[in-house]
Amino acid sequence: MVSIQNQVVLVTGASSGIGMACAKAFAATGAKLILAARREDRLQTLATALKDEFGVESYVLVLDVCDRNQTQTQLNSLPEPWSNIDILVNNAGLSRGLNKLHEGSIQDWEEMIDTNVKGLLYVTRALVPGMVERQQGHIINIGSIAGHETYPNGNVYCATKAAVRAISEGLKQDLLGTPVRVSSVDPGLVETEFSDVRFRGDTDRAEKVYQNLTPLTPEDVADVVLFCATRPAHVNLSEVLLLPTDQSGATLVHRRSP
Fold this sequence. Notes:
alpha/beta; Rossmann fold; 7-stranded parallel beta sheet; 8 helices; about 40% helix; about 15% strand; globular
């Protein structure tokens, strides 16, 4: 495990779920965290918790990655010593709805595309030139099994995660000849707020997604993200597909009898 102590790590979507778990995993190594998300209160609470538990400083960045101008302005005006980002965890993302394409909500489509694809691109475009210039950096994109396998009623969400996979592959090709690394960590079922968001707060429906099986936890995904980031400089884990034992495909899950 290569030390990343004092390296600057920016995590988008850091206010909950996988993003929060990643922040904690990196803080435990002594890295410096830029916590980016829209919910300032949650970010401030997390920053305080990281300081208390790990003794690390965090920079709270209230950011909507869907807003191109805001993203560019905020990321290009980070103060010292936060401006030179070593590791970017592109985690911000969401799913909305579970409908047949011809019955889907265009507003839902736009929200997923704006966050999962365009938001990831805006952040990446703002930060990667500095990594190339400094000859140091690592981009870790949080994808999904949905980027490998389309499932019924998942149409546009699956398309956005397939885009993340393609962007990760294309970025790695474009960075060939530089020491900047690119990884995509693609989990299956993870019990977070994901299903609550997808079903707009229908908790009963969300809970059924994980009923009678053991899903991944955010910490499971964060462990893999940290593993990618702490390999020797000559090692690039380009793609990791991470599934719970109770899952063998996008729609293939084993549910135990209640």
